[in-house]
Sequence to fold (535 residues):
Amino acid sequence: MTTFNPTFQQQAAIDCEGSIVITACPGSGKTTVMKEKIRGVTPNLPSHKGVIAITFTKKASGELKKRCKENAHDTKLSFFGTIDSFCLKEIILPFLGRIWDGKPSNCNIVKKLDSHQQLYLSEKYNSPTYDELRSDAGFKALYDAGILWMSSFAALSLFILSNSVSARRYIRARYSHVFIDEYQDSSQAQHELFIKIKELGLIATAVGDIDQSIYQFRGSQPEFLLALTKDKANFQHFELDLNHRCHPSIVNYASRVLDAAYKLIVHDDIYVFRRLIRGNLKNAAEHISPWIDDWIEKNTITYASDIAILAKKEISLREFSKGLTHNYRLYIDTPLNDIGTECADVFSDLLSYKFGAVATAQDVIEKYFFQLPERNMPDLRKQLKAIRSETTLEDFIDKSNGLLELIGFDDFEKENNAVRLIWSQDTLIKLFKPIALDEVQLMTLHKSKGLEFKIVFHLDMEEWSFPHRIPGDNWDDVNYPSLAEDTNLHYVGITRAELCCILIRTSLRRNAQGNYGNSRPSYFLGLPQLEGLYQ
Fold:
């Protein structure tokens, strides 16, 4: 483990023993601060206790858990995972049946309600609140029909904690602290759940950055993070505003995108570039590919995987990939993602275990098979290892179906067909393998959140491509319905770059009908406060 030398800001947040809120800019070391706080807390806990460590994605959760456990550090009975995973495992499955009867473990968990399931509810909800769940009998009817809707998990957990003494007693007995990362992406129900857990007596830490709020379309509300910073009675506020990741010229450019009055950092060189490339995105990839060869040859970067191609639209990445001469990984939703059930999630992780992205059988067991008796574990590990060594598609599916039956699933037809589609496409299979060093990374700006790369190419810098624009009464009317969120998204994309960020505009833009026409510069390229901050 490398030696960590905290800044004054970082050390102050680490040393505080009470409930805190940390606002942290990109590259400020917030994950390291969370890790240090968790590692500082857990040695003093009894063996039957732990902390709750909630992150926004499964990947971020795995990384935080790995870092907390470095050098065989004992995190006791701590929970590492997403908010949905915590709600399901620690609150809904153990306690919902005591309030609504039935067996939650027998329910089908879905990410999206289909048209039939939607009819149970009195209205269409994006991310239901606690009050909405209490007032709409359709949520109980959904449960009685064997459906648990993931978007309702936070509200449902808050409902359980408000009505179950046993659930409250369990959380107090099992956990001493709660940590939540990416707090700006919390919904109202998730925020209220966090406050409820704190009120049970746990010491609470919220970490986030309002400037990286990019999921308001899903129901996230960044104002809850701001509210915590103003709640002096319950939280001490710490700010991590030093970006240790990006070159100062990248910090200057990204910060001026958000704030025209940002005080610039003094530095000599500029490593933000704007490039207009003739043709379409396929032509742009053909133009850029030799640059990558040259950088590797001259040791500017060590591996092609140090380079990310980011775009607002997935279709842009697909077009770009057609002209790229390098091996690449295109991060897209798979057919299993599209199904959106817990069964599909298990299948995704079984594929990841089979192809190596999930390292050990224990990782799979802890996520999905934790309720099985301990006596079943040796046989379960044997079955998982058999899956990893399986070479034929249908045998892999059969063995996976056997495991799925162990945790209560009995209908896999859609998931099995999705696996068949994935197995037949190399672009999709790559997503279940460890990242290869020779793979250039292609992903949307949303998927890049929380990641970092040596060099970033930011595509879609044409008007109508990014930011999102809709026609007005006249064609030239300026109408950007989600400009604030798109500005944050642009900021996120730029600050993924450590050494160099290149903003790419192509002379031809593909319109909604699939036809090409001459492009104009993006709104973002016309911001006057950016003059002199790029080459």
Observations:
- The longest helix spans residues 83-100.
